[in-house]
Design a protein that fits this description.
8 strands, elongated, six-stranded mixed beta sheet, Restrct_endonuc_IV_Mrr, Restriction endonuclease type IV Mrr domain-containing protein, Type_IV_Methyl-Rstrct_Enzyme, alpha/beta, 252 residues, 45% helix, Trna Endonuclease, Chain: A, domain 1, restriction endodeoxyribonuclease activity, 10 helices
Length: 252
């Protein structure tokens, strides 16, 4: 208080201590406001640059060899090839049906006619019939026998037996052995047995054991030979199947 009076006597005003404190506090710089971290928005994420991709490594080159056969196999066949294949399939079916019809006719021939048929087949395949065939008939079929040769001079001779049996009959080992005995009685070591029946597996094994001395032509093989040599067949229709000649157009 004495200090205040002395100050006023000298014309100096005083300021309350609280005012000094406030004035001193006013001279202190204001603290910087705290900034709160804001969550990242979708726009900020989209605007952020994408990470750089990893460096690419050079891969070794792969060489594929394509052959001409593979190229041809990948090309679909032309339409005319498919049409020709259908024609061939129809012709094969016709041949099978023709063979079945031919077998039915051969199976119903009289014994002597069947023997004549076999003799004609042998002539067309290069054999020579040296003697007239003798035909015997029974309730189970017929058999025609005689001497034939593989050559025109008649040197390589064989004993022939042509046997006509009912449908679905087979040639077993006993039939084969009877034929071998008949050939030996005729003085021949070689023989040819032709029949409309089918060889059993046992008879086939027996033929293999006999070697080259005995040959057998069964029913299916007989019909196949007749088809090959046009025996008992007449032309009904001759058709020339044509195709597009692509080589002709390639030469233009």
């Amino acid at each position: 208080m004495i200090f205040d009076e002395l100050m006023r006597a000298h014309g100096i005003s005083t300021v309350p201590r609280a005012g000094l404190a406030m004035s001193h506090a006013a001279r202190q710089p204001a603290a910087a406001p705290q900034v709160r971290a804001q969550p990242a928005t979708v726009e900020a994420v989209r605007a952020a640059p994408a990470p750089a991709p990893p460096p690419l490594r050079a891969q070794p080159a792969t060489v594929t060899t394509v052959t001409a056969e593979a190229v041809r196999a990948s090309v679909p066949p032309p339409a005319d090839s498919e049409e020709l294949e259908r024609v061939r399939h129809s012709l094969r079916q016709h041949r099978v049906a023709l063979g079945n019809n031919l077998a039915d006719v051969v199976g119903t021939l009289p014994g002597a006619a069947f023997g004549a048929l076999v003799a004609e087949l042998l002539r067309r395949t290069g054999f020579t019939v040296l003697t007239a065939l003798t035909t015997t008939t029974s309730g189970s079929g017929s058999a025609s026998e005689g001497l034939i040769s593989r050559d025109p001079l008649g040197i390589d001779r064989l004993w022939l037996r042509a046997v006509q049996l009912p449908p679905r009959w087979v040639i077993d080992r006993s039939h084969l052995q009877g034929f071998v005995d008949a050939a030996r009685m005729a003085g021949q070591e070689h023989g040819l047995l032709i029949s409309t029946a089918v060889l059993t597996a046992e008879a086939q094994s027996a033929v293999a054991q006999l070697g080259a001395g005995i040959s057998v032509i069964d029913g299916p093989r007989l019909i196949e030979l007749m088809l090959q040599h046009d025996l008992g067949l007449a032309p009904e229709l001759r058709v020339v199947v044509q195709r597009v000649d692509r080589a002709f157009f390639a030469r233009l």
